[in-house]
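Figure 2 data, in text form.
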Amino acid sequence: MKRILAFLTVIVPLTIQAQFNPEAIDIIRPITENLLSSSGIEIDFVFTFENKQEDITETNEGKAFLKGNKYKLTMLGVNSFFDGSSQWVHMIDEEEVNITEPDPEDTEEFTPVNIFRMYEKGFRFKIVEDAADQVTIDMIPDDTEKPFHKIRLKLDKKNKTFLMVQSFGRDGINNIITLKSTKKDLNLNDDFFVFKASDYPNVEVIDMR
C-alpha cells in the first residue's frame, strides 16, 4: 500500500502537468510582438457580450489603434485615449471626458494592450487545436479568484495576428472579441493618443488625476 501511495504521489502531478502545453507561449509571443512592435496598427473588431444565465447576446463593432503601450479605442459611443500614463474617456453623447491615471500594475482591466500582454504571467496553456495556419489556445489562470476561468485565443500563425479573444466568466458572462481586419505600420504620432480638448469645444473636461 505504501508503494502504491508513493507511486500515486509522483504520477498524479505528472499527469495533471501533461494536460497543459507550456510551449504554447512560444506561439503566442512572436504574434504579440509582431503587433505591438509596429509603428501603429489599426484593428476593426466585433465585440460580443453573452450572458448565459439571462440568455442575452449583444454585438457591437469597434475600432482600436495601438502603438506600444498607447491606444485609442472607439466602441459603444465612447472614445478612450491612453498615451502611456493618462487616460481620457470621452462619452460622446454626454459631451463629457474624464481624465485619470490608471495603475500600470493593474492587469485586471481588459484594455487593448493588456489583451495582448496578459499571457506573460499567471496562466497555464492548453493547445486546443493546431492546424496549418491557425491555432486555438486556452489560457487557464493560476488565480482561481479571477472573474473568468478561461481565456481562449484563436491565432493566425501565417499572418502573425489574432483572430479571436474570448473570456469565459465564472458567472456565465462571456466576452468575445473577433478581429475583422488589422493594418500595420501606420506611423502614428504619439499625440494621436492624446485627447485634444480644442477639437471638442463643447465637451466638459473632468480631470480626476
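Caption note: DSSP finds three helices and twelve strands in the chain.
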